[in-house]
Structures are given as structure tokens and as C-alpha cells.
Prior knowledge:
It is a single chain. The protein is mainly alpha-helical. The chain has a single domain (19-223), classed as Four Helix Bundle (Hemerythrin (Met), subunit A) (Up-down Bundle). The chain is built from 10 helices and no strands. It has helices at 2-8, 18-49, 57-84, 94-117, 129-133, 142-161, 165-168, 170-177, 179-194, 201-223. The protein is globular, with a radius of gyration of 22 Å. The model is unreliable at 9-16 and 230-237 (pLDDT under 50).
Amino acid sequence: MTDIARTRAPLAPAMAPPGRRRRELTFAAGFLIAGIAIGVATGPAAGALGYLSGEKVPWTASRIMAFLAYLAFGGSVAYGLAMASGLIDALAGRPVSFALHRDLSIAGLLLTAAHVFLLLGDKWIGFSPQTLLIPGMSPYEPIPVAIGQIAAYAAILVTLTFYLRGLLGPRLWRSLHMLSIVVFALATAHGLLAGSDSKLDTIWWLYVGVTLLIVFLLVYRMANRGAVKLRPARIGV
């Protein structure tokens, strides 16, 4: 009887392990964020492409890379704040969240490098490696460009902290990692002051929207500092 009952009993559907479900949700959220970022950047990119001519290709391509780098860094900062506040824990485990947070920062650095070195092809202003790498030497808007250069170097430092967590310890790591807020603020100032198209409505609202998101998450993080306890530094990548 027991064997017959077992034979006739309907098979229960196989359930995915909780860890797998969390990873799938995280990747879905990552693709959603990437899709939103690309969608937001489509407007500025399309507007810039409308003015393309042979001489303006390096400048225009550099501007597109700048928008994408800004969105990548903004996404990394937003994701980090949301993770520190416990808002992401329902979607994914800390190792997966930490990896996505880190990879967005690395993508921002790579896009920033493309943004900078594409300017070497611009013949109107005449950038050189020295003027692109040394703050204050730019022939175009030297102070706003210097702000962006300092932001890029600070972003390199912040990204390196992802790999130095074990050496620095949790307290020093978090202190250095919070420089990401400064990097975001400097990058925003650089984009608004040095961007040749920052007065366009689409570009202006791009900066405003990302900034409001970061400010909201930062205020939420500070308001819940005592309520949310970060897990120990066992974040594997």
C-alpha cells in the first residue's frame, strides 16, 4: 500500500535553492539597472549624435563615454548605499551585491579612461597626455576639468579599496570607501561646469535625477545607521 501510494502521488515541483533564487533576482536587478542607465543615456547620446561631423567625432564620443561613466559611478554609489542600509538584502546575498557594487565602479573607471583619452583625437582644443592627466593644465576650462581629474584619481583609490578590504580592516575600509560620495559630488560638479552640453534640459535632469537618488539613499543610510548592522567582513568575491 505504501509503495502504491508513493507511486501514484503527484511529484512535487522542484524548488530552486534560496541562494540560486537570490542570485537570479540580483542579476535581474542588475540588468534592470543597466537598461535604465542605457535608456537615460540614450537621450543625451542621440542629441549629441545630431551634431556629429568628422571633426567632432572624438569630442562627441568622449561626451557619450562621460555620461555612461557618470551613470556607472552613480549606480555603484547608489547600490553601495542601498546595500549598507540593508535595502538590497531581500534580493541577494552580500557576496553577489558586493561584486555588482565593485563591477559598476570598475566599469565607471574604464568608461572614464575612454572619456579622457578619446580627447586626444580632438583637433579643436588640442589636448595632450600632460593636459589630460595633470590637474590645472587643461587648455579648456582648467578648473572644472581639474575637478574631474581629481575625481578620477579619487575613484581609482576607492576602487582599489575593494581589493584591500582584508588589509585595511572594516573601520578604515569604510572610511576610505566613503570617499565615493566625494567622488560622485566632484564628478557632478565637473559635468555641470565643464560639460559643453550641460545646459540642455535632458543633461540637466540627468544630473538632477541621479543626485536626488544618491542624496535620498545617503540620508536614509544616516537615519538608519544604528538600526542596520553590517555583517562581518566575510564578503567573498
